[in-house]
Design brief:
The protein has about 575 residues and is an alpha/beta fold. Helices cover about 35% and strands about 25% of the residues. The chain folds into three domains: about 170 residues, Rossmann fold (3-Layer(aba) Sandwich); about 80 residues, no CATH class; about 260 residues, Rossmann fold (3-Layer(aba) Sandwich), CATH 3.40.50. It is globular and about 75 Å long. The chain starts with 5 loop residues before the first helix and ends in a 17-residue tail after the last helix. The strands form four sheets. It has a six-stranded mixed sheet, sandwiched between helices. A six-stranded mixed sheet has the order 16-17-18-13-19-20, sandwiched between helices.
Amino acid sequence: MTSFAPEAALNAFLTLEHLSVEFRTRHGIVSAVNDISLSLARGETLGIVGESGSGKSVTSYALLGLLDRAGRVTEGSAVYSGISLIPASESTMRDIRGREISMIFQNPRAALNPIRTVGKQIQDVLLQHAQCTRQTARRRAIEALENVRIRDPHQRVDAYPFELSGGMCQRVVIAMALACKPRILIADEPTTGLDVTTQRAVMALVCELTREHGMATILITHDLGLAGEYCDRVSIMQKGRIVESGSARQIFHRPSHAYTRKLVKATPHAAENVRDLLPDDEKSPLPPIGLDDVRPRRPLLEIQELRRHFAGKRSWTDVLACRPATVFEAVKGISLEIWPGESVGLVGESGCGKSTTSSMIMRLLDPTDGAIRFKGQDITLINRQAFVHHAMRRSLQMVFQDPTDSLNPRFSAADSIADPLRRLMGMSHRDTIAARVAQLADMVGLPQDLLTRLPHQLSGGQKARVGIARAIASEPDLLILDEPTAALDVSVQAIVLNLLVDLRARTGMAYLFVSHDLEVVRLLCDRVIVMRSGEIVEHGPTTQVLNQPSHPYTCELLAAAPRPPIEAHVEPEFSHD
C-alpha cells in the first residue's frame, strides 16, 4: 500500500485512496491499477512516470469517469474539493470535466473531431462551460491558439485536424484543455509530438497558469527528464503499482527501487554512448562503424537548392476579387549531402520543413524546384508514381514516426515485414519469404511468436521494431528515420537506439535521423543539420554543433531542452558569434 506524501496531503484538494481498477477481457480479468494512493495540493505539479501499460493513464481515466465498458473501479475513492468522483453521476462529471478538471489526451488526432475545424472545437468547450458568448467565442479560440504558440492563429482557427501536423494537433488539444482555466490539469504525455522550444513554451504556460490561478497539474509521462525539470514530486508506477515516490532530485540522485534506477539509467542526458542507456547485464562493446578513411568519390545523397511551395486557402473574398492564393514556402532552397555509412541528424522545431524534406527525398512529394541526386541520379526526374516500382526504390526506405498509423491494421507483423520482400525484392516462394522474415525479426529483436499478431496486439516498442524490420527488408543504402523513438518509453527507446547502432555497423546503411530530441541525436549521429523556417541555419560535426553552437537558434534549441537534476550532466558551452 502506498501512503500519501505528508507535505502534500495537508492542503490536498484531490486525493486518491487505495484505488484499484480492473478490466474484463476475453482471457479473463486483468488488474490495471492496484491499491494506489495519491494526493495533489493547490499549485503543485505531480509527475507520474512509468512505461506503457503501467497504469498511468488508466488512473486518470478512472478519476474522470472515462473508463470504457470493460473497465471498472473495484475499490478505493477519488475526492476532489469535497466531491466524491467515484462514484458520481455522468451529469456531475460532465460539469466537472473541462471546467474544474481538464485533460490533455495522449493521441491528439484521436481526441479531435476530424470533420470540425479546430477553432469550432475550442469554441465548443468554451460555450459548454459558459466561458464566453457566441459573439466572443471565435476571438477566445484564437487567443487559445496564440497561447500555445501556433503561428498564424487567425488562419489556423479555420483549419481541420488533417490539415495540421501531429505537433500542431498536439498544441490544439493543449489549447482546448487550457481554454477554461481549470483548477486541475491532467496532462497525459502532453509534449510527445512537440519540438523542444514549443515543449518549453507549453510547459512554461502550464507552470504560469498553475501559479496565477492556484491550478494543480498531474503530468503523466515516460520522459523522466521532463518530469525531473517541471515536477515538484514524482511517483514511479510499474505494473499498476506505485513503487517509489519523492522529490525530483531525490528520484534522480538517490533512487531506491531497482525499476526507478533502470529508468534513470535509460534517460539519455548523462550518457556518453548508447550502451550507457542499457542495464549493466545487457551491455556489450560498441560495434565499430565502418566508415572509410578515404571518402568515396561522390555522396550517397546530394540535395541542391531544394524548394517546396504550398498554395494557401482562398477565401470567398479572394475568389470574388480574383486574387491568387497565398503561397507558403515550406522549404527554401536547401542543400545538403549524406555520405555512405554516415548518420546525419536533422533537427528543428515543428513546421521548419524537416518532414517536408524527408517526404521529398522519399519521393512522396514533388519538389517545386531543385535536385535530389541519389547514387548520382536525379530522382526528381522520375515520375513520383513510377518511383514506387523503380529499381532505386529498394535502396531508399523510411521508418515513420507513428508505428501504429504506418502499419496496415489487417496485416500481421510477418505480413508487414514480408510486403517489401514481395514488392521490391521479387521474392515469391513462401518458405524463402518466411525464412527471411524470421531473420529480420531476429535482427531487430522481435520474438518469433509475435509475428502472427496484428498491430493492435503489439506494444509501441514491438510495433517500432516491425517498422524497422520492414524498412531494412530491402537492404537499403539510406534509411530515413522520422522520430522513430518519440512515443517510446525510455527503456524501450534505449533498446531501439542500440538496435539502430548495431544495424548500421552490420549493414553499412546511412541514416537521416529526423528528431526533436537533441540528446538522442548526440548519441546516434556523426553530423547535425539544424533547420528553421525552411532553411538550414547551421550544420557540422555533432560534438561541435551541440557543444559550441554558432547560430543563436541552435543555442535556443539547446537551452530549451529539459535539464533533469542529474549530477553527471554537463552543460554545453554556448558561443554566440
